[in-house]
């Protein structure tokens, strides 16, 4: 009987531990790991600030993960996601230090998705804010001026991306932007 009780207690503890929410990785750890990988692979880091509720964030991920031009763009980077601005239900998914980094990069008043390209030493090369003098953000690039800034970001942050692939990404974004009303 004692063994049965102990087994029951052990199982309850195991299930409770398995169901306990895990703390999200810190921004510092995410960037450290990305820097190591970027250095090894001779790439820059694409830091994307997002949240579960952000439809435009999901559209940007879909471009980079599902479209052929986007996959070629994404292959040029070590891409990391920093979760910020979550709703109460997903607050535990936020990465500690994420809002501080977003503020440092000038995106705290600009909405998400906000993103930056950094070199492997975490030096910021360019952000999705086309206006250095005031808050701003292209978010998901759908309008012509947003796409133009995104192409500038690629030229600066992904110099090995073939011109044909850059033009294919621009064409894809332009066509999709028209459908989205951009």
Provide the fold topology.
Layout: H1 2-19, H2 27-41, E1 44-50, H3 55-66, H4 68-74, E2 77-83, H5 98-104, E3 114-118, E4 124-127, H6 144-157, H7 163-180
Parallel strand pairs: 1-2
Antiparallel strand pairs: 1-3, 3-4
Helix pairs in contact: 3-4, 4-7, 6-7
Main attributes of the structure:
4-stranded mixed β-sheet, alpha+beta, globular, 7 helices, Glutaredoxin, 182 residues
Structure write-up:
With 182 residues, the protein is of the alpha+beta class. The protein has one domain (21-180): Glutaredoxin. The chain is built from seven helices and four strands. The protein has a four-stranded mixed sheet, sandwiched between helices.
Average residue pLDDT: 90
State the CATH superfamily name.
Glutaredoxin
Residue ranges: pLDDT <50 for 5 or more in a row?
Answer: 4-20
Summing up helix and strand content along with how strands pair, one would put the structural category as alpha+beta
Helix fraction? 40-55%
Helix segment tally: 7
Report the radius of gyration as a whole number of Å: 20 Å
Q: Under the CATH scheme, which class? A: Alpha Beta
Main sheet record: 4 strands, mixed
Here the CATH topology equals Glutaredoxin
Extended strand count:
4
What is the annotated CATH architecture? 3-Layer(aba) Sandwich
Count of individual domains: 1
Short description:
Helix content is 50%, strand content 13%. It has helices at residues 2-19, 27-41, 55-66, 68-74, 98-104, 144-157, 163-180, and strands at residues 44-50, 77-83, 114-118, 124-127. The longest helix has 18 residues, at 2-19.
């Amino acid at each position: 009987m004692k063994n049965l009780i102990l087994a029951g207690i052990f199982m309850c503890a195991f299930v409770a531990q398995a169901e306990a929410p895990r703390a999200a990785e810190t921004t510092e750890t995410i960037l450290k790991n990305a820097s190591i990988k970027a250095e090894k692979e001779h790439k820059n880091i694409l830091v994307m600030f997002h949240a579960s509720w952000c439809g435009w964030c999901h559209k940007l991920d879909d471009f980079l993960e599902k479209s052929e031009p986007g996959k070629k763009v994404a292959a040029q980077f070590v891409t990391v996601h920093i979760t910020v601005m979550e709703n109460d239900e997903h607050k535990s998914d936020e990465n500690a230090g994420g809002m501080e980094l977003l503020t440092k990069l000038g995106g705290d008043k600009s909405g998400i998705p906000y993103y930056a390209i950094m070199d492997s030493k975490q030096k910021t090369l360019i952000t999705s804010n086309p206006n250095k003098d005031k808050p701003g953000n292209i978010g998901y690039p759908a309008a012509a001026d947003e796409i133009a800034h995104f192409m500038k970001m690629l030229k600066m942050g992904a110099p090995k991306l073939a011109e044909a692939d850059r033009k294919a990404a621009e064409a894809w974004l332009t066509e999709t932007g028209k459908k989205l009303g951009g």
